[in-house]
Amino acid sequence: MDNPVTERTPLIIAAEINMITCQTKKILLAGAIEIGRRLLEAKDLVKHGEWGNWLAESVSYSQKTAERLIKLYQEYGPNFSDGLDTSKSTSMSNMTYTQALLLLGLPAEEREEFIEQNDVGGMTTKKLQQALQDRDKANQEKEQALQENQAFKKGLKAIDSTISELKKEQAKTPSMPTNPENVKAEAFSAGQPALPTHNLKTEHDPDAHIKYVEKCDACCKTIADTFFDLTTALTNLTHIDPKLKEEKRKEANRLIEYMAGTIKEWPPPKKPLRVNS
């Protein structure tokens, strides 16, 4: 009894068309690589300055198309198998011409790993484009994380440098008689350095205010920049070591509170000179 003829359906026809299309694209890639190899060979033989004319007259290719085909050969040729030679079978053998072109944007050392990890041969063009976009996004996020980490280190360095400088200034300051201001500073210095004592000379320049206004503006900008670095550092430290972040936050908060309280009533009232009898 004869075998029944398999019923032809739109689904079966579509599957056959897609299979033939895929096979055609793979054959197209193999052909493109072979053309690229021969173009490179010809380029070495054609006289200097005649390459463009030779392409137009001999093979009807533009220089842009020729360079793309040569690039395909240079990037894929050594590792490409057309499927007939099983000894050279690689993950690249399952790619189509379009997929190969899209992957030219990847560094050579990363391309084969990407192909294997993402099963490029089984992807549609749209899915491959999305996978490449996701990879670019992940690389950008990695780069941003590295930059934030550098900012974190810079912020910690700025904090440590500020504390170190304040400690040096405190060490240079002569001891003062006990008074409410000193008690406040000593209480703060138990955990943080106190601000230095200012011994200012009398100004005789009528335009001195200009200099000090500029100095105030510059100092405020420095404080603002350092505060941004501080908050960036604390943000990064939150994800790395929350306990250490909280410790550094409290240290910074004590310093900021003391500075805010000091500047609110600055300068302190002048004290009478002490005269020894």
TrEMBL record:
<dbReference type="Pfam" id="PF11300">
    <property type="entry name" value="DUF3102"/>
</dbReference>
<dbReference type="InterPro" id="IPR021451">
    <property type="entry name" value="DUF3102"/>
</dbReference>
<feature type="coiled-coil region">
    <location>
        <begin position="128"/>
        <end position="155"/>
    </location>
</feature>
<protein>
    <submittedName>
        <fullName>Preprotein translocase SecA</fullName>
    </submittedName>
</protein>
<keyword id="KW-0175">Coiled coil</keyword>
